[in-house]
Amino acid sequence: MEAIAQSPAASTTQNASISGGDKLSAFGEARRKRDRRRRIIRGVIGIGTVLVLWRVMAVFYGLEQILPPPLTVARTIFNTLTLHYQQPWLYGPNIYEQLAASLTRAISGFTIAAALAIPLAILWFGLGNATVIFVVVIAEFFPLYFNTEAGARTINPTLIDAARCFGAKGFTLFRRVILPASIPFIIVGMRIALGGAWRMIVAGEMLASESGIGSVLMESRFQFRANDLMMAMILISIVGYVTERLIIGTLEKKTTERWEVKIL
After folding, report:
1. What is the pLDDT of residue 82?
2. DSSP string, 38-100
3. In terms of CB atoms within 10 Å, which of 41, 51, 116, 262 comes out highest?
4. How many CA atoms lie within 13 A of 87 on its CB side?
5. Buried/exposed 55-88: b ≥16 CB within 10 Å, e otherwise
6. Residues whose CB is less than 8 angstroms from the CB of residue 94 and which lie 6 or more positions away in sequence, other chains included
7. Three-class secondary structure of residue 25 per DSSP
8. What CATH number is given to the structural domain containing 152?
9. Residues 91 and 199 in one domain
């Protein structure tokens, strides 16, 4: 077979293109690392400031009964998680069963809302109130729906026209253009919806349930046990943050970081 010779100019252009792509990829990775460091630093400073103010208010103003110091709450959390209670446990099942009950309810509601809201918002938006009425019982629907709608509305029509010129249509157009352009808004909506799911789960358990972390909050309030109250609040925050990182953080890495799309 006859070998195909490549001109020096073409080879130089190809090498320059590869080098430029490597530089862009390296720049994107450096930017993500810099943003991650900034978030960590801001988070450490914020948490440290809150803990110091918490300690000062509890000790200086003598509020240990209603606002226990951070170390006291930390000991309560440790004893509760290790099932070594310094005081009798008054909240039914152990803390793990209570957290599991709340987590199951929150994730189930969030999953249903995400499955319904995101496809419907992209495929049906602009068709009236039928979609909203169909899923109005799901409270997380609204942030997901309106954020996705906003993402779809902000897509540059030139991108869609260009994709159609190259033969993209139907699902290919959705997967290659509409979804990547809308994903930053979808991620924001999912974060808001997941946070709202936890707030509503806790509120519902406080009012109408005998299980879950919300019921622990209500019972500890009735028993005037501030340590348990603070412990439950902190555990809600920790579990909420972990679920957000596992679900939304993983989705973000698989989409926005892969496509190098910046979250708003």
Report:
1. 87
2. HHHHHHHHHHHHHHHHHHHHHHHTT-TTTS--HHHHHHHHHHHHTT--SS---SSS-HHHHHH
3. 116
4. 12
5. eeebeeeeeeeebbbeebbeebbeebeeeeeeee
6. 83
7. helix
8. 1.10.3720.10
9. yes
Same domain, 171 and 45: no
Q: Whose structure tokens read 């010129």?
A: 165
pTM of the model: 0.55
Q: Which residue has the tokens 């622990």?
A: 216
Q: What residue numbers bound the domain in which 26 lies?
A: 1-63
Contacts of 149 (CB under 8 A, 6+ apart): 121, 125
| Tens-place pLDDT, residues 111-149 | 777 666 657 655 654 433 444 344 444 567 777 878 888
Low-confidence ranges of the chain (pLDDT < 70): 1-25, 114-118, 120-139, 204, 207-209, 257-264
Let me know whether 253 and 218 are in one domain. Answer: yes
User: Which residue from 190, 202, 169, 183 is spatially nearest to 246, judged by alpha carbons?
Assistant: 190
